[in-house]
């Protein structure tokens, strides 16, 4: 084993340990409690809940199957350990494979380029609340793991030009049953890929065709689920709004939304277009096709956003796509200006290293504060049980005056004991009711 490989293994292990730390600091929250209470594998209700969801809530069968299989109150320690380890591996692979994609695997993890990339990655995915969202266990399983699978497949099919037809078909089927937003966005990009390859007389990777086949099959099953329409009917504020009115409303809320950050992808798109337009390797046709695709993809979330607002979960896929698009064009671009900027970055790598340590340190400290808070809450719960108190009031998490610092997903206990999250918490910890302090 040469020195470079040892360094890369060591760096990968450090990344894994960091994410394992913050995963272990993240307590159960919101939907996690209901999943654990269901304990479907223990009580034999796994398929019952899947069928119930398909007809009454959602068609996301592969995502639902994972949460039902992994959450368990009876085997809570094993359940949390499994989820935390898988999620830590997933986040590590996510960091590493995006680096391989944007640099086209030209640089090692032990290079200055990885330090520079890691700073921008940490800044982007911490500031937007991406990491804070996907460390939450339910969101990790139902969103992050899908992103990681797609990222790895993209690397091998597009960057390495491998075929992997059977794997691509299986992944396509899995993602098709995973999330309708994934299906819509990926269909748009697959179509753009085929058009661009055809116009430029380039060979189409068979793996993409197999992936699309699986995606379409799974997508049809997902979209046909009666539960999707039950959920949309329950959440939509206006059932009779026209498509044009939905688009106008979506543009309005997209433009003025403060959290999650929406305008950041507009700025990323502008950067992408500048880098792509000044990159002599790109044809004008390719720039136009993929620029339009990036814009069109945003509107895939319009039906969901107009039904229950722009939630951070809807933004996650765009943070990934636009970040990759910008960074890839930056590393591909050999214009004089970009080359000078790149050289300056490499000379200043120590500054980026300090910035990286600062960002991950702040995020790590926030999660450690959450861990300490939860330990205090567990003491209150234990004391309440010892005193046979059935209706409890518990403190809510705050850091620097914020209940969700850096987008960390945890607090959902309200002043209303009949709130679903309050009821889930009470049921999980065997209380009659629970509500937040200072109401």
TrEMBL record:
Superkingdom as given in the UniProt entry: Bacteria
Pfam families referenced in this protein's UniProt entry, alphabetically: DUF6056
TM stretches of this protein: 9-29, 75-102, 114-136, 142-159, 166-195, 207-226, 247-275, 287-305, 312-330, 350-368
Keywords from the UniProt entry: Membrane, Transmembrane, Transmembrane helix
Key word Zinc-finger present: no
Protein's name in the database: Putative membrane protein
Organism: Francisella philomiragia
